[in-house]
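From the shared-data thread, chain only:
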Amino acid sequence: MAKLKYPLNPAKLVDLLFNQKREIETGMNCVNIGIIQEFNSTEQTVHIKLALKKITNIEPDGTRIYAEHPLLLRCPVVVLYGGVGYMTMPITAGDECLVVFNDREIDNWFTDGGVVAPTSLRTHDFSDAFAIVGIRSLQNSIAAYLTNGIRLSYNGTAKIDILDDQIESVAALFFHTGNVQIDGDMVVNGDVQVNGNLRTTVGADTVHYNNHVHSGVDAGPDNSGGPVPE
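Structure, as tokens:
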């Protein structure tokens, strides 16, 4: 076997392979951190600015030159959803998010759903990003984080806490549409206002209270101070 006239230098080959590896790694998009710029509630998509800049050049003295990535446009947002149930959040500009890039193109799937074929060979591309909203930097950490239950909060003024043996709610006003059934005792610390008829059932008898204010001014049409049967 003929010998190579100029045999490869092992050290230079290692450098070449290492540089190729680094080039592949830096050119592949997997997961990144983003900042929401705009939210489309109809499409449930967002425009995203990536929070981590890219290195465009390294000067001879080792100085790194940085630049921002282009905006990621119309990225689908991950929403908690299953069957006929879902939970939405008021996503706004400035919210931080985790950006994940699909292995293959998502265009046809995003438009038509179902099982589809991609129309291009692109992989890990900026055009195929999803946004998982909810991650937070230390500057945006949640104050008074509940550690012994589940908290649903909006704007810090209305919240519902689900604890081991009770549910606590704080709100200026509570609205409910539909019937409410309570099996068990109910304690109300404060006033109760009923706009309509109040019906109570005692044994087999049903009594209706029309415009009745207990121990108050207006006791009903007969002004007797007691319940007025319908």
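The radius of gyration is 31 Å.
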